[in-house]
Amino acid sequence: MLQDVASKKIFILFSSFIREMSNVRNPEDLMKALVRITTKLANCAWVSVCDPNGNVKFAQGNRDSELSEELKSMVHWSTQNLTPSYLPGEQGTIFIYPLSKAEKIIGVMIGESLGELPIESADTMRILAFLSSTVLENLELYVELERQHNAVEETLRYMHEILNTFSQMIVAVGKDLKPVFSNIRYLDQAKNPLFEEEVKKIVQKVFETGTRQIQELEMNGNFYSIVGEKLEYEGEHQVLVTLADITNTKELERLKNIDKMKTEFVANVSHELRTPLSAIKAYSETLISSIDDLDNATMVDFLKTIYNESLHLERLLEELLDFSRIEQHMLKLERTTFDMMDLVRDVVHSMQEFAKSRGAELLVEQETQDTLITADQRRIRQVLINLVSNGIKYCKKDNSEKYVKVIVQSSEDFLTVVVEDNGVGIPKQIQEKVFEKFFRGGSSLNYEIEGTGLGLTIAKEIVELHGGQIRLESEEQKGSRFFVDFPRGADKHEA
Ligand code: ADP
C-alpha cells in the first residue's frame, strides 16, 4: 500500500515534470522547473542549479546565492567523476547531481533535503537530472540554432544593405528568366520594360554560351554597361547581371576625343595653310628678284602656280568658314531647280586635272532620266566635289586602274548620287566616325594626304539640310561607295 502511494506520487511528479518540460522555451525556465519539482519531491530546504564551475544560475529556498568553497570543490569532484555526491548538511542531506549529456557537463543541481534523503527520492532525482540534461542540451542547441539563424539573417540584411548602396543595378536571374534577387537600384529601374528586356537578352546569352557577356547599351540618351556572369546557387544555374550608368564616363571620353581631334585639327590646318603660302611666297620672291632674267613662258607658269595656290587657300578658308557657319547653325540654302546630270558632269570636268595628277580616271553613269531637282546648287556642288576629291585622294597608290565613278540613279522617293571608288576603303570600326567633325582616319593623320577632317562633316550637314541623307558602304582595300539621297519633293514640302 505504502509502495502504491509512493509510486503514485512519483507518477504525478513525472507527469508534472513532463508537462513543465513541454512548455519551457529557454534554459532558465528549465532550471526553475527542475528546482520546483525537486523541492516538491525531496522536501528540500533549498535547491540550486549551477554552471559546471559552481556558479549559481537559479536558486530556490533559504540559501546564499554563492556556494561555499567546500561545496564548490564537491561540485568540482562530482562533475569530474560524472557521479552524484551526498554529504551531511545542517538540515539534512546535501545532494549534488551533475547534469551531463554524453560525458559533457552542462550544469549541476545541488540542494539540501529537510531531514535525511530517502533512497527512492535520490533515485528519482537521478532520473530527473538525467532527463533535464537531455532537455537542457536540446534547449541549448535550440538557442544556439536560433542565434545562428539570427546571425545569418543579420549577415544577409547587412549584405543587402551594402548591395543597396551600390550605384550599379544588380539582379540575379534564374533559368525561368525571373529575378530571384535584386538590389534597390534595380528595383527602381525595373519599372522600365526596356531594362527588363535587355536583362533577359543578356541572361539568355550567358545561358546559351556559358560565358561572361559584356555589352554597352544606349537608352533614353544614357549609356549603360551591362555585364552577365554565370552563378550557381544550391545546384541551380543563375546569371548575375550588373548594370552601370556610364553616361558621364562616355561623355568625358567623347570630350577628350574632341579635344585631341581639335589639337590635331589645328596642326593639320596650319600645315594645310603653310603649304600653299610657302609656294606663293617662293614663286613671288623669285619673280621679284629675277624678273629681268625670266622669259615670258616661265613667268606665266609661275603666275599660274601662284593663282592655283591662292585658289587652294581660298577653298581652305571657305571650308573653315562653312564649318563655323554649321557650328552656329547659320548655313542657309538658296534653292533653284536644275539638272543633277549637268551638275555632275560639271564637277567631274572641274576635277579632271586633279584626278590626272593622281593617275585616277573619272567616270559618270546615268541610270535615270528623272534628274531634275530643286536644291542649293552651289552647296550640292560642294558636296560632290568633296566626295569626288576624297575618292581621288584615298586611292590605292599601287593600283594602275584607279577610278572614281559618279552614278546618278533614282527611286520613287529619292534622287541618289553615288560616288564610288576602288581606293583604300574605310575600316568597319571607323565608318560611323568619318562624318564626325575633325575626324581624319589612318594615313590621312600624317600629312601624307591633304585635308582638314571637315569635308564629310560639312557634306553631311548640307545633305541633311536638304532633308536627305548620306550613307556609306566600304570594304578595306576594295573601295568605298558614298550614297547621297535627296528626297523627291522634300524641298517642295519645305517651300
Ligand atoms: P579629310 O579628307 O579632310 O581628312 P573628310 O571629312 O573628307 O576629311 O574625311 C574624313 C576621313 O574619312 C578621311 O580622313 C579619311 O580617312 C576617310 N575617307 C573619306 N573618304 C574616303 C574615301 N573615299 N576612301 C577612304 N577613306 C575616306
Explain what you see.
With 495 residues, the chain is an alpha+beta fold. It folds into four domains: 2-146, GAF domain (Beta-Lactamase, 2-Layer Sandwich); 166-245, 2-Layer Sandwich (Beta-Lactamase), CATH 3.30.450; 250-327, Orthogonal Bundle (Helix Hairpins), CATH 1.10.287; 336-487, 2-Layer Sandwich (Heat Shock Protein 90), CATH 3.30.565.10. The protein is 50% helix and 24% strand. It is built from twelve helices and 17 strands. The strands form four sheets. The protein has a five-stranded antiparallel beta sheet with strand order 2-1-5-4-3, sandwiched between helices. Helix 8 (296-327) crosses helix 11 (455-465). The longest helix has 47 residues, at 119-165. The chain is rod-shaped and about 150 Å long. The relative contact order is 0.06. It binds adenosine-5'-diphosphate. Adenosine-5'-diphosphate binds next to helix 10 and helix 11.
Any idea what the shape is?
rod-shaped
What is the C-level CATH assignment of the largest domain? Alpha Beta
The second-level CATH architecture of the largest domain is 2-Layer Sandwich
Number of domains: 4
The distinct ligands, each listed once, are:
adenosine-5'-diphosphate
Q: Rounded to an integer, what's the Rg over CA atoms?
A: 48 Å
Question: Main beta sheet, described?
Answer: 5 strands, antiparallel
Helix-strand sequence: HHEEHEEEHEEHHEEEHHEHEEHEEHEEH
